[in-house]
Amino acid sequence: MAVKDKLKKDLGLFDVFAISTGAMFSSGFFLLPGIASHYTGPSVFLAYLLAGVLILPSMFSIAEISTALPKSGGAYFFLDRSLGPVMGAIGGLGTYFALMLKTAFAIIGIGAYAAIFWEVPVKMVAIVVTLLFMILNLVGAKKTSAFQKVFVVFLIVILVIFIFNGMLSILRMEFVNKDSVGNQFTPFFSNGIEGLFATVGFVFVSYLGLTKIASVAEEIKKPERNIPLGMILSLVVTSLIYGLGVFIMVAVIQPSELANDMAPAATAAKHIFKWLPENVGVMVMSIAALAAFASTGNAGLLSSSRYPFAMGRDKLFPAVFSKIGSNGSPIVAILLTTAVIILFILVLSEEGIVKLASTFQLLIFIFVNFSVIVFRKSKIESYDPGYLSPYYPYMQIVGIIISCVLIIYLGWMPFLFTSGIIIMGLLWYYFYSRGKVKREGAIYHWFALLGENRYDELENELMEILKEKGLREGDPFDETIIKSKISIIKKKTDFEAILNKVSDVFCANFNLCKENAIEKFINSASDDSYIAIPNVVVFNAKFKGVIYPSMQIVICKTPIDGKLPFKDYGIKMPVQICVFLVNSVEKPKQQLRMLSRLLDILEREDIVKALLNMDSHREIKEYLLQNERFVSIKLLKGTPQEEMVGRQLKEIKLPKDVLIVLVERDNKTFAPNGSTILMNNDILTILGEAKSISKLYKDYLTYEIKKIDTSS
């Protein structure tokens, strides 16, 4: 993938929480409770709580795949890479339309609530607001998310006040008249259990904000932590506010009135905020509703626009939709999404659209849960989620069953609409995309009978995603580089001599059999035991008895001579650098992450030339590290670091989270211990946390730079 097609990783944990939570608090709280109570009566608040529980399996599945494949496109990308491009086209188009419908519905809510205060045309206001959100999205996801966070904080504060005052009001009502609240909940199930489950399916759309995180996963920092944690926090907060908030509406509004109330939150506010001046409570809730609809509309446009972007990048849509602007936003995809949302605003109906969006999203959940099973069963090593769904595969099976049951309760009309979207996706794929797409999903890696259709490039693509994700916290890559053994060979040698040399070291360190070690390095190309890049061969293997990762680097000043002792899988002669990485058989995923990081380094421009020009082991290791977690300091007289000269390492006061890992003295590099006495002209390699390393850099190296500048 070209750099220009990559989105910026700007979003943190609070951004994830804000996008998800903001996308859920709009029609679900301020509009749907009244409509939903028509199906089940006072038990509507229970339907909201049940929907929050029943979405858990799908949430866990989305979180797992999102941390394995943090790419734009969400459900589309998951389905495409697991079940193939046909399902990707269906899922992508369907989810795209469902999100846009929900977004259009939310933006219309802005116009409806604005009309409470001003005499303005509802749909005209909605169109203007849509264009405003388009501008915000065009300037970048980070700025969009910053706007989102303001909405969400304001909204949660208002809703917490609403719930607190509502519960106090209910307690006062019970104190005055014990029967006043109880009557509101009789009969509890107006249409029996069937009505309750129909309502659960109906209000399911209120929780679809969780799925929006998957569509912006590519732009999230530390996705393996922030995606699952942000989704869980968002679901907990949202479920509690929905359950308590709707309970209050049921308690203070007469059932017959609630079933026909299009603004139940504002009506409830009249009863709750009696201690405020007239209509102030209604005004506060109306402002909160405007913020909620705005946050959903904003987040909806942000996330839904990533679907045509991702499909354009994969050739299921025209390539123009994958273009990125200077601010890191998919401009054409945002413009298309804006136009379609405006179209929906002009033709939107309320209750039917909610059912349609819920039905298709439930179908997507069926496919997503099945996708987790497919990825796990495919045994693709580079499928490396940072979060694993609990109780696999039972959680996924339960999720599939739940979605099927709820679809049945939603009725025939939504089912027919969903079938129409499926047919549209099939037609689009076969008449537009089929000739342009040359890949299949992970399902072909699962079923041996379909082995002839296995798409090997999928594993390469997952390796590229591993590179983009980077190392996981706790992966000892830097430590492995620091402890690596480097051999600089100046005379002619061949591969067999190198393999014998490094195998002797590994066997001595880990008590391995030399013949088995060599066999592992050269005779398992199907397992990527060696990877070739220009002038470099990277060998990797996993052994029993290896406790921690180990690396050896062989740099040959003259090209390696002799025949290859293994099959030539893309090896381009001459080769002058060989890197050997070994790890435990019990840590295959860690080995892949470290290997992907190593390849990312070795693919730097002119790296071979740079390494061949180095004779210092310290320089080589520092060049391979090249990150903000280390600094190299030379001990010189007349500098602040002069105070270290002549003292034992254990006497040196440094920040707690840094460590002197290498000392170069007289062109020889060694790992120091606490009793090592530091000497003038020693060069120290210090590894540690970025903040402390930055402080050391300012304390020691900037002094030298200023001194040089002054003397010049």
Automatic annotation (TrEMBL):
What's its membrane topology? Multi-pass membrane protein
Taxonomic lineage per UniProt?
Bacteria, Pseudomonadati, Bacteroidota, Bacteroidia, Marinilabiliales
Where it sits in the cell: the answer is: Membrane
PANTHER family according to UniProt: AMINO ACID TRANSPORTER-RELATED (PTHR42770), MEMBRANE PROTEIN (PTHR42770:SF7)
Q: Which InterPro entries match?
A: AA-permease/SLC12A_dom, Amino_acid_permease_CS, APC_superfamily, PTrfase/Anion_transptr, PTS_EIIA_type-2_dom, RCK_C, RCK_C_sf
Alphabetical GO CC annotations of the entry are: membrane
Protein keywords: Membrane, Transmembrane, Transmembrane helix, Transport
Please tell me the species this chain comes from. Answer: Plebeiibacterium sediminum
Regions crossing the membrane: 12-32, 44-65, 86-116, 122-139, 151-171, 191-210, 231-253, 280-303, 324-347, 353-375, 387-409, 415-432
Q: Name one GO molecular function term.
A: monoatomic cation transmembrane transporter activity
* Coiled coil stretches, renumbered: none
Q: Membrane: present as a keyword of the record? A: yes
Q: Does the keyword Transcription apply?
A: no
Q: What is this protein called?
A: Amino acid permease
* One of the Pfam families matching this protein, by short name: PTS_EIIA_2
Q: Which residues form the RCK C-terminal domain?
A: 618-702
All copies of the PTS EIIA type-2 domain together span 479-627
Which BP terms in the Gene Ontology apply to this protein? amino acid transport; potassium ion transport
Tell me which SUPFAM superfamilies the record gives.
Phoshotransferase/anion transport protein, TrkA C-terminal domain-like
